[in-house]
Amino acid sequence: MIIMLLILEIATLLGIFARTTLAHGFVSGIVANNVYTKGWQVSFWYDIVNRVTIPQTPGWYEEALDIGFIPPSQYQDPNIICHKNAVNANVSATVAAGGTVKFEWTTWPHNIGPVLTYVANCGGDCKNVDKKALKFVKIDESGIDFTTQTWASAVLMANNNSWTTTIPKTLAPGHYVFRHEIIASHGANSLDGTQNYPFCVNIDVTGSGTQNPTGTLGVDLYHKTDPGIYFNPYTTLTSYSIPGPTLWKG
Questions:
Q1: Which of 6, 13, 31, 207 qualifies as a cystine partner to 97, CB 3.0-4.6 A?
Q2: Is the dihedral of CA 250, 58, 127, 199 positive or negative?
Q3: Tens digits of residue pLDDT in 99-121
Q4: How far, in Å, are 32, 41, 123, 181 from residue 27 at the CA level?
């Protein structure tokens, strides 16, 4: 009902317009426990407007209809958490601690920038959690290979537009929001030129882990002058600070 009201309000303001050319990308599905699960699709927005039933997916609803990004000027806005006007998914996928989640993107065009994955313990059913209260722990990060000068986003592109994250074995079981993100850095030499593409998925973690590390609020993950956000990517790099809090290895 909440999603329907949001969509109808936007449709009233903007009218029903043609589908936008896919200029960037989004997480279209995941593979967890070797099971493929479809994620939120941009086309679902139009289906809901046209009162077409959509499937329940663990991918969070969001309204980046232009397949766009969150700029550094919005890092302290809730949109940075799970993308534009994101709303909780009602169902969850499942993965065992020590297992993997493969995030499958639509065709990705930018080969400069890091790839990151975070988890946030919902403390209960993730369909009811306040996204602004979620505290994210970084469990996966990759920046640039200094020998080859190859960025993680280029590796993702070479891997059929996908990225696989291993869940730390010691992570406690529970209901989590996984926040997976590409930070496109081809415009990072301008103060507001970096492009963040965060997407959230509800995933229940099973296993016997006992660790529940303290995380960081989504609006505190980045600042526009961070050295991994505002820098010159068009030079031979010998150092690079991957944005966000310290990686938790479990």
A1: 207
A2: positive
A3: 999 999 999 999 999 999 999 99
A4: 14, 8, 24, 9
